[in-house]
Amino acid sequence: MQNCSIEKNESLKITPSSTSSKDDFNFYEGNWTINNRRLKKRLCNSDDWVEFKANQEMKIIMLGFGNTDNFITNLDGKPFEGRTIRLFNPNTKLWSMYWTDSNNPILQPPTVGSFEGDIGKFYCKDTFDGQNIIVEFLWDKTDPKNPIWSQGFSNDKGKTWETNWYMYMKKTSP
After folding, report:
1. What are the φ/ψ torsions at residue 43 (nearest 5 degrees)?
2. 53, 36 contact by CB (below 8 A)
3. Dist. CA 126–CA 109, nearest whole Å
4. Neighbouring C-beta atoms of residue 134, cutoff 10 Å
5. Where are the strands (E) in the chain, listed by range?
6. Which of 7, 21, 124, 148 has minimal Cβ neighbours within 10 Å of its Cβ?
7. Closest C-alpha among 11, 8, 14 to residue 123
8. HEC profile of 57-73
9. pLDDT tens digit string along 35-92?
10. Residue 63 φ/ψ, nearest 5 degrees
11. Is 49:37 a contact under the CB 8 Å cutoff?
12. CA atoms 123, 58, 139, 117: torsion sign
């Protein structure tokens, strides 16, 4: 795990990159169409994917120290809305990303991390189907008008990862 290690007490130690800044997500401001590819079942050696489209709008908030986006789609024929709130801590130089959605309207534990150049890595501990897991969000902004986000789970303390969701984004307007 880049910029993340597991301490003896099982907590995650996340360190920022030397280039981490409040401007790391500025590329993402505006409107986007998203092609999603998500595993139907997670952490069970499945290779059965579902694909769907979504729309998203991201706005910078908090005088540039944060941003929020609204993710809108249909899942299984039902309306679905999600929201991310990202906050940059200028003291630690780390981003914290909080997620909530219309299926489970509570703030999930934040993934925390930073960008090293065009690649961002963010982690948190969580549970999934009764299993303790580490969640990893990867952001690739090599092409800032077509960034890629992915989510992975590890149920063996980061030794192996199952990537279970990809978002292929295309900017539609500033």
Report:
1. 55, 40
2. yes
3. 7
4. 21
5. 4-6, 12-14, 30-39, 49-61, 66-75, 78-89, 94-101, 111-116, 119-128, 131-140, 148-154, 162-173
6. 7
7. 14
8. EEEEEHHHCEEEEEEEE
9. 999 999 999 999 999 999 999 999 999 999 999 999 999 988 899 999 999 999 999 9
10. 55, 35
11. yes
12. negative
